[in-house]
């Protein structure tokens, strides 16, 4: 929930915020005002209820400043480039597709959150060093425009195999695997499905079948996908998009008036499970504030507030999930997954090969 990414951009306009660094670590101690401000660097889809954030600020004494820095891939890359003089204290939104890049570049320092034992074991990573903390999970899947397929009397695709069939030629838009976490997740899902070598043949067929590639999720979903509210306004013409299993409930919740059924569906045989993490940046100016913020992110209040703000699932055991998720956006029963070590070993070469194959 992207994840993470994520689908909260349905409710806001498009735009990439260009950010300057927060000042030199060598410049002496922070001012009294700065020490009471903790800065969260995130991808564009960070969101939290005002009351929930205000309660944390009142309880902790810290004012939270949020810097949104584009898609998850862009945010991670910029954090690596500025790691000696970071933009903030905590980075949120690095996911399992990009995690090894962040860890290998020494982006985070160790911190074990207070409620670490409450995190579901399936999502715990780097448990021996505690450089990152799992925050949310979601499934990257192809979404389809129900009305378009009904009007054209065509059955929506249900699997990776279906997407290369002639019936679906020129219908799919996806994100660039080198710049977008859902785009990378879709590539990894195909590699998990077809194997280390088989995914190349699959993408050769997908390219021949007219797949369109754009830079990031917001462009793909809100400008190119005919089933989204934004896509309808933009007169988009692609009824298939790589997005999230939680996108359909977002379409229902943000609609006015709300429909009785989601206007979009999920091709459940195309899903790849994503986990998003947060970590205390290695050269954070306000480490104490960053630790308090990380504790907050895995606390029950935030974990239960998160689904209807960022449209991802909580990772805390026993955290309640909204009814809209159960009805319109349940987690995939059998998503493709990949060991983080394998992602670390192959990701860069796969992305390089994918770029040469698909974009050139």
Shape: globular
Distance N to C terminus: 30 Å
Number of distinct beta strands: 10
Biggest β-sheet description: 10 strands, mixed
Please estimate the helix content: 25-40%
Percent in strands: 15-25%
Secondary structure tally, helices: 15
Mean pLDDT: 89
Secondary-structure-derived class = alpha/beta
Low-confidence stretches: 1-32
Element order, helices and strands?
A: HEHEHEHEEHHEHEHHEHEHHHEHH
Cα gyration radius (Å): 20 Å
Describe the structure.
The structure is a single chain. The chain has 360 residues and is α/β, with parallel strands linked by helices. Helices cover 38% and strands 18% of the residues. The chain has 15 helices and 10 strands. The radius of gyration is 20 Å and the shape is globular. Residues 1-32 have low confidence and may be disordered.
Q: How is this structure best summarized?
A:
By secondary structure, the chain is α/β, with parallel strands linked by helices. Helix content is 38%, strand content 18%. Strands 1, 2, 3, 4, 5, 6, 7, 8, 9 and 10 form a ten-stranded mixed sheet that branches.
């Amino acid at each position: 929930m992207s994840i993470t990414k994520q689908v909260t951009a349905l409710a806001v306009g498009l735009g990439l915020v260009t950010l300057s660094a927060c000042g030199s670590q060598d410049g002496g101690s922070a001012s009294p005002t700065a020490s009471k401000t903790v800065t969260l660097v995130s991808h564009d889809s960070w969101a939290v209820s005002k009351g929930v954030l205000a309660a944390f600020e009142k309880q902790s004494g810290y004012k939270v400043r949020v810097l949104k820095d584009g898609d998850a891939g862009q945010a991670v890359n910029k954090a690596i480039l500025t790691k000696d003089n970071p933009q903030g204290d905590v980075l949120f939104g690095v996911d399992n597709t990009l995690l090894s890049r962040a860890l290998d570049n020494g982006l985070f320092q160790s911190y074990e959150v207070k409620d670490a034992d409450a995190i579901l074991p399936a999502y715990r990573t780097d448990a021996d060093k505690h450089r990152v903390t799992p925050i949310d999970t979601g499934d990257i899947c192809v979404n389809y425009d129900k009305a378009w397929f009904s009007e054209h009397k065509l059955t929506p695709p249900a699997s990776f195999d279906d997407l290369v069939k002639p019936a679906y030629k020129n219908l799919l838009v996806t994100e660039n695997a080198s710049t977008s976490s859902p785009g990378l997740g879709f590539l990894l899902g195909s590699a998990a499905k077809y194997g280390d070598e088989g995914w190349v043949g699959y993408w050769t067929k997908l390219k021949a079948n007219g797949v369109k590639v754009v830079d990031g999720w917001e462009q793909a979903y809100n400008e190119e996908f005919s089933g989204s509210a934004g896509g309808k306004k933009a007169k988009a013409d692609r009824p298939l998009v790589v997005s999230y299993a939680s996108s359909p409930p977002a379409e229902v919740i943000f609609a006015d008036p709300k429909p009785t059924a989601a206007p979009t569906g999920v091709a459940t045989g195309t899903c790849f499970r994503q986990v998003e993490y947060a970590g205390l940046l290695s050269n954070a100016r306000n480490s104490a504030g960053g630790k308090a913020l990380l504790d907050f992110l895995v606390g029950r209040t935030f974990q239960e507030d998160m689904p209807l703000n960022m449209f991802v699932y909580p990772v805390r055991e026993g955290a309640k999930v909204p009814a809209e998720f159960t009805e319109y956006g349940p987690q995939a029963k059998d998503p493709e997954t990949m060991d983080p070590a394998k992602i670390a070993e192959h990701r860069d070469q796969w992305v390089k090969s994918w770029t040469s194959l698909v974009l050139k």
